[in-house]
Design brief:
By secondary structure, the protein is mostly helical. The protein has a single domain, classed as Cytochrome c-like domain (Cytochrome Bc1 Complex, Chain D, domain 2, Orthogonal Bundle). About 60% of the residues lie in helices and about 5% in strands. The protein has five helices and two strands, in the order ααααββα. The chain has a two-stranded antiparallel sheet with strand order 1-2. β1 and β2 form a beta hairpin. α2 packs across α5 and α4 packs across α5. The chain binds heme C. The site of heme C (HEC) has 31 residues, from α2, α4, β2 and α5.
Length: about 100
Amino acid sequence: MRKAIIFGSVLGAMLTAGPVSAADGKAVYDQYCMACHAKGVNGAQKFGDSDAWDDSIAKGLETLYEHVINGFQGEVGVMPAKGGFGNLSDEEVKAAVDYMLENAQ
Ligand code: HEC
């Protein structure tokens, strides 16, 4: 009986730990990207608005990563490099882009 309990809790811990992810895209988005992208400030593509994201998605993921990491002057506005937060790692920025795109399908 006791063995079964130990086995169960080890398994439970393994399941809740999930895959190892270095950066949490949602957390980065909520803290650094939402200010402009939640409401579409200055022409920023609105979070969750799939029509608004069509043109960006068509550029390809690598181009989008590049635009967000280094900054990008678009037709409607400026996407500041890393949203203006130079302290973010490239990996954190990419995770946030992934999160935004997952919600723009
Ligand atoms: C100060 C406002 C602002 C912040 C903060 C901001 N963005 Fe943007 N972002 C913009 C604007 C404006 C555009 C639209 C540029 C255009 O298409 O004209 C944009 C465009 C983008 C695009 C599309 C680029 C393309 O080539 O189509 C992505 C992806 C993106 N932002 C991701 C992010 C991520 C990730 C963060 C947080 C790390 C972030 N943004 C923070 C203003 C912002």
